[in-house]
Amino acid sequence: xxRQFKSNNNVVYSCKYHVVWCLKYRRPVLxxxxxxxxxxxxxxxxxxxxxxxxxxxxxxxxxHLLVEVDPQFGIHRLVKLMKGCSSRILxxxxxxxxxxxxxxxxxxxxxxxxxxxxxxxxxxxxxxQKHV
Length: 132
Description:
By secondary structure, the chain is of the alpha+beta class. Helices cover about 35% and strands about 20% of the residues. One of its GO terms (molecular function) is DNA binding.
């Protein structure tokens, strides 16, 4: 498979990351429509920041994401925006979340560069997380 590169005005890049973050206290609240709305929000944030979500899996208590982002924007800024926007919007649209959780997400997250791992392998791993 040929490697695909993206570019902005002055950088040609291929920066793919595997990102995982959890809900505060690992409360299983990402279900019953919250998960679908979260997916819409994350896709919208990525679109606005010209990042590409390659794979996304939302489980009741955490999120798995395979994403490509401009290195000048940075993965840390993208994750911060995704967590911040989604927390604000979900807590507005689903008021019962405010009573269950003081904040939606933990402060931490996991991120790893994809490197030479085939994307098909990572996609398969993320897709199978629901069945674990």
